[in-house]
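Job type: complex structure
Entries:
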Amino acid sequence: MKIDPLPVAVGLVLGGLVHLTTVLAMPRLALEDAHARIERVGPANEVHLIPSPTPFEAVLPRLDPSFAHAVCRYDLRDEPLRVTIPLASDYMSVSFYTRHGMPFYALNDRAAAQRVIDLQLMTPDQRAALPRDEEITAADRLIVESPSEEGIVLVRAFVREKGLQDAIEARLREAKCGPVG
Amino acid sequence: MRAFFVIVAFIVGTLSGLGLTYLASARSNGFGAVTVGAWSVWPRSGTADADPYARAAFARAGELPLERADGLLFEAASTDNGTPLDGRCATRIEGRMPQARYWTLTVYDARGRLIDNPAERYAFNSTEIVWRQDGSFLVTAAPRARAGNWLPTGGRDRIVLVIRLYDAPIGIASRTGEPLEMPRVTQAECPA
């Protein structure tokens, strides 16, 4: 059978377009993305501990098994949030991701002045709407601007030996992610 | 004839387009990889500048990548000579790590899962590892227990090693600067 090359060539060009479109759309279309996985852990605007990954179960893929993790799935539609994370003795970091998993900010325990990371999370509009005088006191307050109304805060706490896991997880349970007032 | 043209073009387009996307997002970390020996690192994948392929792959896997300001992830699926890593062999990870406050070295199976073992030993970190006197180290990933820093591989035929450097001041500007020193990866004692 002779195959006409023209429809195939047109098809391949179409295929290129389909490919580019689906790759670009994947972060919005993926059903089992990080946000969906975290949704199952608990409601938004609360901190939830994520159990350490085991060979059989992992809430999120490729989390470091030498770390304890906590997440807060946030929704800023109603109001800005205050995120406070008491530090453990070892390395800790806080990373911020948009609704579709793009990392936009991170800081670690070295960036915290006291034994707690205390910051406010808001959209650019909410920040612009802050009263002037609050903007001044905001100087000694850490403000993180989220490019999206929804997103994910992931706390990673290093556990240098397994015996410390419980103590560090207890510390993570004290973390808060809720309304500013 | 015209309907036939449209149908062929449509089928070829859909299949090739979706197939390419499927393959590209299954096992890709995007562009801009920097390789050092057996190790690959994608310095932009943990930033807002990650390319669309990296984002697609992370979204599909449901992974939240390590933020660049937090750490850097290096992956090795083969030895320094390019032999695929086999969990039935003894894989030696030997040498020094780049400067970092902490690092961890984890072994995964081919599907990115931890490997079950009675000791629940999935990784070593810089604080618990047994160092040599000269400040270098040796970790052996092997199916059976051995003295020293042993990572159990469960005898899987394919394994992947992952190093994560935390709070690492190193710059990974590709092609410039001094080369990074990463541990060597070699394999021995493979079953015949």
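Summary: The beta strands of chain B are 34-36, 39-41, 71-76, 90-95, 102-109, 123-125, 137-142, 149-152, 159-166, 184-188. Chain B touches chain A through 60 residues (CB under 8 Å).
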